[in-house]
## 1
Amino acid sequence: MVSGQLTSSIQKHASERKYNFCSGPALLPLAILEQAQVDMLSYKGSGIGIMELSHRSALFTGLIEEARSRILNLLGLDSDFEVIFFQGGATLQFSALPLNFIDDNGFGAYIVNGHWSKKAFQLASQVRSAKIIWEPTTTNSEKVPTETKIALDKGAAFLHYTSNETIDGIEFHQEIVSSDAPVICDASSNILTRPIDPDNFDLIYASAQKNLGPSGLTVSIIRKSFLDKCRGTDIPLLDYRAMAQNHSLLNTPNTWAIYLVNSVCKWIEDQGGVEKMHALARQRSEMIYEVIDNSDGFYQNRIPEESRSRVNVVFHLPTKELEEAFLGEAEKQGFYGLAGHRSVGGIRASMYNPFPPEGAQKLSEFMKDFAAEFADF
Ligand code: PMP
């Protein structure tokens, strides 16, 4: 038996935890972190810690199957779909998807309405033909297409869109469909935050580090009939067919992240499933938007109401100086990670599935107090 000196200061560290508004990696439920400490030492009484467990062991293959079926169940998807765990983040999927699904005569059709959909389009263009089929114009304020049924030219291998633009704070509140090509959705920042209609998706992918667990893992859920259209690539770890055939165990996967994703999915089930996550996402974001909308322009969110994000609430204050003061004071009061992305500045409150509503409540109160103090400056 291996033993060593253990120090137990868990309680102290738990009480130091702040309201973490980071865009990802993001806050995880305390109960999961506590259980993870135990499982790190000995998983399911095996005497082997979860991070030390072989990915070929029965315990781990059981775990990965459990994670797979929880994801499908939570999304309301059946055996028509396959779940694949990739490494390399959603960013690697920006290259993998065109390599797997666009042939020499075809093109990927991209809706580009923010930072990440632009990146997806740019990386696709580096390896295959890709076209922007919708983007916001300067002449009207729409941030997502008003028409959700999209017609595509012949040769479109897929339609790609980003259901929530994490940096820009833009979310599709209606699903996009096309009868001309399969639909791929980057749902990195809003997967499992609301129910979906399975008919409207052929592939959904998401980095884990926002709504599902830690970084270093990407979950891709693909309709099997779309997988049949995969042309494959020469790079095995990017090859959808090879990864599916090998149950995501072509090489050593991120076992730790898969363990945590399974735990988060179980936690979501215990909370009341995706319907409950949807209600919480609305509750949290509405608390912040309400303060913004009632602040007489002190706080400004420039996204039309119908496409405001429920998970990344972005806003500006009248001056850069006030934004800096806001961030400084917020940090002193125990709010962490509120600075907007470096490319856009301002403030961003990211609140994903595990984020507690009282954090949003506390931030809304802080915002009111701050506006009351500084609105006339
Ligand atoms: N897509 C979206 C919507 C994102 O928010 C992010 C990351 N924040 C990415 C893609 C890229 O993910 P990763 O850093 O895991 O590659």
## 2
Amino acid sequence: MSPSVDKKTQPGARGIPQGPSADGVWVNLNPVPGLVIANVPVPDGQCTCVVVQGGRMSWVGPQAQVPAEYQALRRWDAHGALATPGLVDCHTHLVYGGQRANEFAMRLAGATYEEVAKAGGGIVSSVKATREASEDELFALAAPRLQALLDEGVCAIEIKSGYGLALEHERKQLRVARRLGTAFGVIVRTTFLGAHALPPEYAGRSQDYTDLVCNEMLPALAAEGLVDAVDVFCERIAFTLAETEQVFQAAQKLGIPVKLHAEQLSDMGGAALAARYGALSCDHIEHLSQDGIAAMKAAGTVAVLLPGACYTLRDTHLPPIAQLREAGVPMAVSTDHNPGTSPALSLLLMANMACTLFRLTVPEALAGITTHAARALGLQDTHGLIAAGRPANFVLWPLSEPAELAYWYGHKPACTIVRQGCVAADGLGIDLPHGGRNGI
Ligand code: NIG
Ligand code: FE
């Protein structure tokens, strides 16, 4: 990130938009096919123009046909840069204390994820560190992680709780998530994951803890406006199908949408259950059955693929991509950023892994980190597409073809980012007097 951008994107004391207004006529964009809806069709070989007014995209189409009313607006020349909608990271556990590199080392020495968890490591060790941290400390720890994702063009992100596992600590995590959204001018969707693991003080009392989640924690946090969705880790080492349903019922009573960590290590039938509750998404799904796929298709539930977790755990049991494709279930791709199984801070790297490890096509991977990820958060009407009527969220890349977005890895392209109507970064130098330093 350049120093000038750094100044612009400093978290504002009043939690205000970051960067100068992006209002004006953005000319000479080259949007990735499938990720743009034009008001007037753009002929092949011609560049696209996006008009931004009041922070929203008001018109998308060929330059030659920009309506007269917009002609006098400020002009931003993208010089033919590849354009995508703002990226969406739809599954993260970004707010936590400590880190777990020791478990990475344990697994290298032969221990499995389940063995690490049983030995007192795993989620519960992050719970200890998260409980010990203050809200300000958690904010300070999460801020640079969020910045790393934002620098790559993320414009909307989901952040889960689930490392507090007690009302005050879950509240702390969710409050930090909300504060991050305000301070960084990014859309944050919060997900309450109180049913992530059994806290040590409830050992052997799973039902009591589930009751606490449903009867006290969720209603209190929802009343404070901290919960956009509810999630459960439904697994042998976490919560049963019946406990998961109990949490879903509590969410349904409050009118809050659900999602699920489903069939990661075994087929629990969680996806079919989640689909019955109209889940926004089922995530992980390495062991998803054909019945689960059919139920998700019928419910319009998004399949969220998390190749970073598969990679870190060296899981060889891959999600049933061919069957999901065949059934027409929308597939999203996310970082699953968390300290245990996916300490990943690059959504583009996840797109690369989704292609290389899971055999997604490039268009699938790119829809997975934009359009379908937005749907997994219920943001399908506002995010994930360049289209009129939406808040202005788009990224201009110093790249010449869409496949490059999934091809390079270990390299953050210097992009220009319009986030929520503001120019949050200008790697292409579009705002410079000579109109772009990259010669594109
Ligand atoms: O999404 N699967 C459960 N939850 C996280 C892992 C959390 C952790 O190990 O801290 C996941 O992979
Ligand atoms: Fe997760």
